[in-house]
Write a structure and sequence with these properties.
alpha+beta; Alpha-Beta Plaits; UPF0250 protein A9B99_12210; UPF0250_YbeD-like; YbeD-like_sf
């Protein structure tokens, strides 16, 4: 994943991930678990259900320290089997 994030962002900075996945109870825990491995901290993710309730959107903001951390988290969050999209 070659991006120009390092040209667009000045580190450290707040960075929000929006993770969309199946509406299962473990979704939030799995997202926080992955984020904790790469950016330890105290997180309070925001959860929004889809209109039909089949999916949940989990927004979580980290303090990003470098571009590799941002890219790694995109990849790792996308590997969670119940996740459908990471923005």
């Amino acid at each position: 994943m070659k991006t120009k994030l390092n040209e667009l962002l000045e580190f450290p900075c707040p960075f929000t991930y929006k993770v969309m996945g199946l509406a299962q109870p473990e979704l939030v825990d799995r997202v926080v678990e992955v984020v904790q491995r790469h950016a330890p901290g105290d997180y309070t993710p925001q959860i929004k259900p889809s209109s039909k309730g089949n999916y949940h959107s989990v927004s979580i903001t980290i303090t990003a320290t470098h571009v590799e951390q941002v890219e790694t988290l995109y990849e790792e969050l996308g590997k969670i089997e119940i996740v459908r999209m990471v923005l």
